[in-house]
């Protein structure tokens, strides 16, 4: 076999290997991040930039000391959430503010750092990609107090509840993939 043919075959095999690596990487990130993957691609403008960002998030969050709640904390948070829902009828705005505080407290208790909202949402997307959009939607409603209806506030509480329930891990039910 001619050395040129061998060189071309080696280069072709290397390119196929690289393509397979990126294809596998993309599939793994799509599966891990679910709907957050598509959001990241739309925000970043390209899959390559989005994938780098998602990997950076995962690496950053992997350094946090995120842990399940103790049984006592689980009971405390569950009780607080039931009380919050009961108050919604009399004070929908106050219930939404309390839901935001309760979710933030739950995140802090689990070990997530309390930074700005966008960073918290990014951090949550690593371990809770299926519900992080609920957090964003609730926050958007809660940030528009002067333009919301009672139905909007009800929707905000429902969004917070979806995230709250996903975060309410008690015992050893850690989700982080290896």
**Which band does the percent of strand residues land in?**
under 5%
Total strand count, please? 0
- The N- to C-terminal Cα distance equals 45 Å
Number of helices: 8
Series of secondary-structure elements, N-terminal to C-terminal = HHHHHHHH
Helical residue percent?
over 70%
Biggest sheet features: none
Number of domain modules? 2
| C-alpha-based Rg, rounded | 21 Å
Derived from helix and strand composition plus strand pairing, the structural class reads mainly alpha
Mean pLDDT: 89
* Unreliable stretches covering 5 or more consecutive residues: 172-178
Q: Overall 3D geometry?
A: elongated
Secondary-structure blueprint:
Layout: H1 3-33, H2 35-44, H3 47-62, H4 71-87, H5 92-110, H6 117-127, H7 132-142, H8 150-167
Please give a quick description of this structure:
By secondary structure, the chain is mainly α. 75% of the residues lie in helices and 0% in strands. It is built from eight helices and no strands.
How would you describe this structure in keywords?
178 residues; single chain; 2 domains; 8 helices; mainly alpha; elongated
Structure description:
The protein has two domains: 60 residues, no CATH class; 97 residues, no CATH class. It is 75% helix and 0% strand. The protein is mainly α and 178 residues long. The termini are far apart. The C terminus is likely disordered. Helix 1 crosses helix 3 and helix 7 packs antiparallel against helix 8.
């Amino acid at each position: 076999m001619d050395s040129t043919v061998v060189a071309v075959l080696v280069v072709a095999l290397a390119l196929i290997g690289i393509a397979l690596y990126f294809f596998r990487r993309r599939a793994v990130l799509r599966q891990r991040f679910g709907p957050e993957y598509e959001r990241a691609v739309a925000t970043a403008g390209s899959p390559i930039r989005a994938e780098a960002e998602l990997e950076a998030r995962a690496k950053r969050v992997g350094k946090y000391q995120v842990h399940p709640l103790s049984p006592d904390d689980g009971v405390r948070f569950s009780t607080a959430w039931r009380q919050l829902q009961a108050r919604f009828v009399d004070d929908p705005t106050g219930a939404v503010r309390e839901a935001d505080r309760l979710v933030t407290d739950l995140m802090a208790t689990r070990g997530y750092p309390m930074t700005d909202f966008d960073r918290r949402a990014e951090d949550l997307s690593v371990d809770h990609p299926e519900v992080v959009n609920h957090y964003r939607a609730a926050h958007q409603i809660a940030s528009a107090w002067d333009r919301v209806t009672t139905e909007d506030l009800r929707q905000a509480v429902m969004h917070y509840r979806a995230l709250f329930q996903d975060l309410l891990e008690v015992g050893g039910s850690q989700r982080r993939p290896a």
